[in-house]
Structure formats: C-alpha cells, structure tokens
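re: that complex we talked abt at group meeting.

here r the seqs, copy pasted straight from the sheet so there may be weird spacing, ignore it
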Amino acid sequence: MIEPVALEDFFITFFSSALIILAGASYALLFAWSKVNPNFRIKIAAYISYAILIISVAELTQAAQFQGYWLIISFVMAIGYFFAPIGIWHLCVKTHADQDLIKIKEDI
Amino acid sequence: MNTTGSNGVMQNAAAVYEKSRASFNNFKAWVQLDSTHLSDGRQLAVKYFTVAVILFFAQILFGLLAATQFIFPGFLYEILDFNVNRMIHINAMIVWMLFGFIGSVYWFLEDESGAEIVGLKLGNIAFWVFTGAVTLVVLVYLLVQIGPGKDSSLWFINEGREYIEAPRWADIGIVVVILIFFYNVVATFSKGKWSGIAGVLTLDLVALAGLYLAGMFYMTNITHEQYWWWWVIHLWVEATWEVLVGVIMAWSLMKLLGVRRKIVQTWLYIEVALMFGSGILGLGHHYFWIGTPEYWLTVGGFFSALEPIPLVAMVVHAVYDAGTHAFKNGNHPALAWIIAQAFGNFFGAGIWGFMHTLPQINIFTHGTQWSASHGHLAFFGAYATINIAFFYLAIQQWRGNVWMGGGSQNAWRWKWALGLLNGGVLGMTIALLIAGYEQSFIERAVEGSTWGGYFTAQNHPSFQHAMGWRLFFGCMTLTGFILLVWDLLTIGKGETRKAPAIIEN
Amino acid sequence: MNETPLWASESFWKKMAIWVTAGSFLILVVLTMDSLSKTNAGSKRVPAYTVINKKIDYQYDKTLHKSMPIIGENEFLFGKEYTEEEARQWVDLGKKTTQAKNCMNCHTLLGNGAYYAPDLTKAWLDKGWISRDMREDMMVKFLMDPESNARTYGSNRKMPNLDITEQEAKGIIAFLKWMSSIDTNGFPYNFKTIEAEE
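got the structure back, here u go
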C-alpha cells in the first residue's frame, strides 16, 4: 500500500530525490578521488556528501510517507550508496592489477 | 499541343535533374571527403550516419512545430496537427538513434572481428530498403495521417501507439532489416574471431529484435496492450540500448584511449550485470497505473532506486582512470561528446528519472510534462551524445585520420555546437520541468485530473511561460544542430597533421 | 598485488552477467504470466466488456487509501443492453479507432501518450459532460464534429476533425466507458466524477 505525497511535500520530495542521486554521486566521486589523491580534506568532503545523502534519504522517507516494507528502500539506499563506491573502487584496483602504463606512439 | 506540353515537362525534368546533379557535384567538391580512406564496411557505416543526421534534423524540425502549437494552437491546424508532428518528432528520434547504432556497429565490426563484412552487398541492400521504408512511412504520416477504425489502417497508415507508431508492414520490414544486420554481425565474427564484445553484442541484438516482436500485436484489452508495449519501449531504451552503448563505448575505449581488452571486457560484463540487474525489473515503474497488480508498485519502486547504481560505478571508474593514467587524445570533439554523454546520462536518466519515479509521487507526475522533461534530457544525454561522438570519429577517418586534437582550425564551431546543443536541450528540460511541476500541482493534486483541471493548468501563466521558453531553447538546439552539421562537413578539411596512433596496451 | 582475485576476474563477471540477466528475465516472465492472468477482460482488475451495460463510478476508499472503480446497477449505453460478444465488438471498434486516429499523440490513455490534450483514463466520468443524461449525446457530437462542439476551456486548443463516423464514435464511447472501470491503483488521484455531489 502507498500513501501519496501530500501537496505541501511535493517540492521536498523532488528535491530530496534529486539530492540523493547527486549526493550519492558526489560521495562516490570524492571517495574515489581521495583514494587517488590521499588528502584529508577530500575525505572529509566525501563524508559530508554522504551525510547529505543520509539526510536526503530521511527527508524522502518522511515526505513520501514510507511505511512497512517501503522502509527497506530507504535502508537499502543508505547502506547501498555507502558501500557501492568502496566495492567498485576495489573492483577497479583489482581488474587493473596487471596493467602497464599506456603507450602512445606518435606517428609524426 | 499535347506532345509539346509533355516535351516541355520532360525538358524541365531533365534540367532539374542536371541542375541537382551539378549542385551535388559542387557539394562533393566542397566537402572534399575521400572515401578511399574508408574500408567497404566503414563506407556502409557512414551511409547510416548520414541518414541518422537527416533524421536528427527531422526530429528537431517537427519538435519545433509541435512546440509552436503549444503557444499558437491555430498554427497548421488541420494541416499538420499536433499528433502528426509529435509522432514524427519521436519516431524520427527512435529511428535516427537506431541508424546511428547500426552505423557504429558496422564501423567497428571489421576491426573487432579481423575479417571483412560477410554480407556487404546484403547490408547495402538492407540499408536502402530501410531508408526507403522510413521515407515511405513518413510520407504516409504526413499525407494520409489517419484512417478509419479498421485493421487496414493499422497495417498501412499507423498503429497509433506512441514510439512504435510505424504501420505493421513497416514493423515486419524493420525486423527483416535487423535480422540481416544480425546475420552480418554473427557471420563476420564467425569468419574472423569472436571476443567478449562480440558475444555481448550478439546476445544484445537477439534481445533487441526479439523484444520488438512483443509490440507487433493488436489487442482490444488496453491493459494487456500497454503491458507489452512497455516491454518494447522500456526494455529497448533502458536495457538493450544501454548495453549496446556499453559495447560501442567498450570498443571506443580500447581504440581511443588504448585501454586493455581484458579490462574493458571485464567492465562490460560488470555493466551488463548492473544494467540488466536493475533495468529489466525496473520495467515495473511503468506498471503502476495501467491496471496491473499492486505488487508492481513495490517492484518498480525498488528497482528504480537501484537504477542509478551503474551510473555510480561509471563515476568511480572514470575517476580511477583519470587518476592513474594520463590520456592523450587526437579527437577532442569526440572526447567532449563522450564526456557530455556521461553527464547527460547521469542527469537525464539518473536524477531526472529518480525525481519522479517512486509511486508515491508518480501518481501526480505520470502523464504530465514531467515525463517530457525527463525524456528530453535522458534520450539526448544517453544516446544522442554517443552517436554524435561517433560521427566525429567517423569524419576523422574519412578525412584520412587527421589531427583533431588541440590547436585545430575553426575549433570554435564544434565547441559552440556542443554548447548550443547541450544548452538548448538542458533549457528545454528545465522549462518542461517547471511546466510539469505546475501541472502535477494544479491539474493533478488540486483539481484531480479532470478535463477542467487539465486546462486550468495549461492556461496558467507559469505553464504558458514555460512553453515559450521551451520553444526558445528548441530554436537554440536547432542553431546548435546547424552548426554541428557545418562542423562535421568541414572539420579537418585542409588539416595535414596526422592523429597519433594509439596501440592497445 | 598482481594476482587478480576471482571476484575481479573476467570469467567471474561473464558468468555474473549471464546469471543476473537470466534470473531477472525469469522473474519478469513469471510476473508477466501472473499479471496477464490477473488483467484479462473479465478479471477483478479489468472488468468484462459487458461492464458498458452498467453504471460506473470512481470513489475514494478510505481503507485502501485510493480511489476505486465502483460498478453499479444497469445503465445501458445508447439505451440498449449488449451481449458479451456485442460489447466486445463495440469496445474493439473503439480501441481500434483510437489507434487509427492517433489519439495517443495528443491525449494520454492510462496516463501514457502525449500531453497536448486531457487524459482519457476516466474521460467517461468527467464532469465536463455536465450530466449523465446529456453525456452520450454530447460525446457523439463532439467526436464527430469537434470543431463546432469544441471544448477548449479557454485554451484555444481545438481537437481537429478526424472524420470519425457515428459508428466509430459510439465505439470510442464504449471503449472509454469500459476503460474507466479498470482498477488503476488509484490513478488519477483525487478525481471527482460526474456522479459526485458538489
């Protein structure tokens, strides 16, 4: 069963949904960047992004009136978006494990 | 009297023919494209690209006509009504993208398989049949438009089903052409060598052709009909097309940036797993309100929340690549369009998709300009961009693999075309977003979707303004398109430097 | 460092891709069979075509948190009760006509289509037809000659004349009446029908 979003919560629904994806992606981006360039500030920025994501998920959960098994989606988003970039990063490292540097031959 | 009359007509026709031949020759002399730079397979590919560009123009033109009718409803009333313009607008889009994909596959088929295309002649015939059939279908759309409520109308005029309006005879023709294309792909790989890319491509084409069959039946029961209709539309656009783009990208990454085959193929498999894993059951978000059981609300909502995961994977991977290698690239426009693809796909499919996909909010946004907003950015971002990138790759080779990196002549053209096209589509998307927001608010939530509510929302100043801005940004898109065509025809002309060869590492 | 673990190997992901695709597709096929059987014309969600002989309404159900179609007593279409086969033929003619006239590229049906004209999902129940007595007649006239009977609500947007015959118009009305009885999980929300008291 679903409970449609209330009129006054339209904006917060659209906004928090967009922010989930945006924050999720920027967390992924900053997390990956902090691995390439081990800078403390980048890492902090990554976790701030993740904090924004958590707040957005909480906002969306309220605005969209999730209840019962719908809460699983909120839960999966909160957990999934945290671990997905870490898992994918490890996958990147391991799949590229035996790669040498790229060679480019200039023809001229 | 009569003979002189017909003689005159004949002479006129001959003169027109001579004139058009002369101007075609002039055009050929002006563009200075040398087809001997291309293999036979690639010559077939550029034919597909050429038609794709023409259909891209048709898409924009008829989109503008339809956009104008939102502001001036009397414009072309009962001559070219909104439904005709809108039908050609979306059909031209589907077909130009298909032409682009087929062209791209023909482009790399010989290179990837290490063999010459087996049924080149057949492929050429199929190209002309396909192009002829598309022309005929469009002419019937324009001149006949509609028919009586009989089967014959669905067989010969149009089927009246959004995106797959093509009449039944053309459906069968499309399947035949796709099968010929499929034969060429499989036979060429069999003659040369198979690869992971070849395997994914083959299976994807089976799915592409097979799914189309699901949309070829008439049904009285509209719930069943829309059920199968979404099988075609969603599973094409959000599954098989995505994978097809993945295949094209995988090959480009090897050739453009010299990434190793093993890595590219592993990641192609990862992407297939993520995209099909989220995309196939993501179909559920189209089954919320068409009469299908309630469990689709959960299935659709859940898998839609997963659909951005492949995009996150791409982000992480891009950073990894950028951070660990320094790339040198001899085709800046192509690379810029591939970057535009990454962003466009992320915003259009990811953000715009997720904003209105959960059933709790979709009940208000379904069937409003929200869908149009999402559709514009997602189709352009995910598919138009990658096709344009391939046009640039093709033109580079057609010119004899000339330098198209930094310091090229007239680089402002491709940069402005890029900016205007992306800016135009983004502008339309935002205008439609505002219109959709207002519509879901006033028409849906407050007035409960009655006809009165619909028109209250349509007449609202914010909606009217949004439609004005949409037309403005549509014109901007057209300007970008014109610049793009000019650039494609002239880029690399007179360039003597060769592009650096990239060897697979 | 140079060892590629199994979970990052090409062959592992090849198998994963195949299994995930096959698994998702299998689930889709099972759900499809279930959904199709639950939405046959004559099922609980999608009523039989003879529903055009009945009065149809759409009301909010507090326990279900959504509006539900309500099928009431006899209310014949064009003053005649149709057999199952006759009803099917009328709806079929209407459905085919909506496709042949390309309605979907201006209107939405079940919310799908274009956005230049109103949604047709509950068009039969729309208040725009003023009263139940006038509805059938108004609809036939509108469909056959939309220009002179234009319903533009101040928008200047007029439906073009689509050469709809009287027979086809009646078919479309039968189709619209039948479609309004489909259980669409509460879509559209908050819809007030022609039956509702002001």
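couple things i noticed - Residues 222-257 of chain B form the longest helix (36 residues). The mean pLDDT of chain B is 92.
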